[in-house]
Amino acid sequence: MITKAYIKSMAAEMGFAAACFCLPKSEDDAPADVRCFVLLLKSYGPKNGLTDAFYIAKNDSYADMKKLIGRFEEMGIRTWVLSNLRLKDIASRCGLRQGLNTLHYHRALGSKFCMELIGLDVVPAGENETPEQATLSCESCKRCMSACPGGAITANGFVKEKCIRFYMIGGKSMPLHLRNFVGGSGGSYAMIGCDVCQRVCPANQNIEKLRGMEKETDFTLEELLLCSDETLERFGEMYGRNYAVRNRVIAQALLAAGNSGNEAYLPLIVAYKDSASPIVREYAAWAEEKMKNLQKIY
Ligand code: SF4
Ligand code: SF4
What we know:
By secondary structure, this protein is of the alpha+beta class. The chain folds into 2 domains: 4-120, no CATH class; 150-193 and 219-292, no CATH class. It has 13 helices and 8 strands. Strands 1-2-6-3 form a 4-stranded antiparallel sheet, sandwiched between helices. Helix 11 runs parallel beside helix 13 (278-295). One iron/sulfur cluster binds next to helix 4 and helix 5.
């Protein structure tokens, strides 16, 4: 009989910072033969630059989960990849606490982790140790609510249509007032991603101390604006093939270029106004207008 301790050690070998367990409920919509969930946490550090480290970790975590599934299969245990289920309820049942910003927290990792979920057709033996709870004082804190540039965190809950991340690389046209925050200086609002509501959270402050210590592996804005085959290939390797859609990468880069106020990008911005892609044309026109306002060049 496989044990929870053994699964945790295998998960650690695959680079997961933690593995937690809970039993399925009918409302989870898991396949009927699933008898136990294994929630895997892949941690990441904070990162400055044009892209948020979450997306890199998420891409890695999927590949590492597949390796772990291979180990289960060698042991004759049937598995299901269930990361598309509603993970928030499952994470709470696994003992993680949810903050006002809707993200889950682990005492040691803060909110800086991404999650994968595997279903097993067995219930592993051993105590179900829940992770040590993170200290969250949301009632008296509310820092994430004040800091969110889109006003997505409200007293009545989270409004996803007001969150910058909702529009990242998805091909949806971002509301005008949110565009100003894309690619902001210092990486507060990345070209891809936004971590403001995590950055200000007291429960992440130990992790935030590591900011700036990471090896720089980012792209330059010029590379992303030009988006050559080679850049797109590297982008797909780091962030996942789903995100490596040329027009969407260029569209996000255009918003960041407009906000940069750097006139060197202007010829490229103007050239994209004739793009065949509606979102690229729309963002190029916006970026040119933003550049005009920042530089007062016309
Ligand atoms: S910033 Fe404050 S209110 Fe927001 S999740 Fe963290 S502790 Fe809770
Ligand atoms: S990710 Fe950014 S926009 Fe979305 S809720 Fe957090 S701070 Fe607000």
